[in-house]
Design goal:
This protein is α+β, with helices and mostly antiparallel strands. About 30% of the residues lie in helices and about 20% in strands.
Length: about 270
């Protein structure tokens, strides 16, 4: 393995779009969603942080050819969280980075559950409880927005191996919050806090996570109960599971997912 290369995964956030595998050579990074097709990008690295000289093409090719099999462990330990106005606890995940020099002060603190149009998202749990069957993506965005208003704040945290996090800088973050240490339980395990006071709101957030279940299975620090819940949800969306499969590091119910993958291949072939 090329000694200069680092191999890790990063999350694509705000809106969430799953996980990318990364081969990092400092001045050059290669990205892939499936471990087969790779895109090369130049990276401007601050002087003195990492070697930023031009990377010879042969060296980049060697790092790619000698890469270990995917998936790689998540390496984006720096997380930018929208804060709950009530207690300044993490509410929704806005961004993540691997290196401190990448974690700048954000210009705004707005969380987006989906790209424009809402990706056809429907929360059956929310619809059953409210009778409303449209606009669920917008309702989810407003739910999170209202929990952070009127002056939304966002803070970077450096997550530790035990799940705890050290508060860093951010947007509208006072000195009293910088340097604080929050336990793992203070952070939502997935993308958004799930413990809302209203049953319909809880269902809305749970169905949002179920919608993204296949890609969330690529996260490598999930509790077994959470992984089992996501596997059940991912099996209900076979094509999405097929797309996310190369990035999933751990499987609990292999037979369930095997059947879903077969369904996904058949559905994709029929398109």
């Amino acid at each position: 393995m090329n000694r200069r290369a680092e191999y890790y995964a990063i999350r694509r956030l705000n809106p969430y779009q799953g996980v990318l595998q990364v081969v990092d050579l400092g001045g050059v990074r290669m990205y892939s969603s499936d471990g087969r097709r790779w895109q090369v990008r130049r990276v401007e690295v601050p002087a003195g942080v990492r070697p930023a000289a031009e990377i010879p093409g042969a060296e980049a090719r060697a790092a790619l050819e000698r890469r270990p099999p995917v998936p790689y462990p998540l390496g984006d330990r720096l997380e930018l969280w929208l804060l709950d106005r009530r207690d300044d606890r993490p509410l929704a995940l806005l961004a993540s980075r691997r290196w401190r020099w990448e974690a700048g002060v954000p210009d705004a603190a707005a969380w987006r559950p989906f790209a424009a149009g809402g990706a056809g998202f429907v929360s059956e749990g929310y619809a059953r409880r409210t009778g409303l069957r449209r606009g669920h993506a917008e309702r989810l965005a407003r739910l999170v927005e209202y929990a952070a208003r009127p002056h939304p704040r966002a803070q970077w945290f450096e997550r530790r191996a035990d799940g705890s996090g050290v508060g860093l800088h951010g947007l509208r973050v006072g000195p009293g919050l910088e340097g604080r240490l929050l336990p793992a339980a203070a952070f939502p395990e997935l993308l958004v806090r799930e413990d809302w006071p209203d049953e319909a709101e809880r269902a809305l957030v749970a169905d949002f996570h179920a919608w993204h279940a296949a890609h969330l299975l690529a996260h490598d620090m999930l509790r077994p109960a959470t992984r089992a819940r996501l596997e059940r949800a991912a099996a209900a969306r076979p094509v999405a599971l097929l797309e996310a499969w190369p990035a999933i590091p751990t499987v609990l119910d292999r037979e369930r997912l095997r059947v879903a993958l077969v369904q996904g291949r058949l559905m994709r072939a029929a398109r």
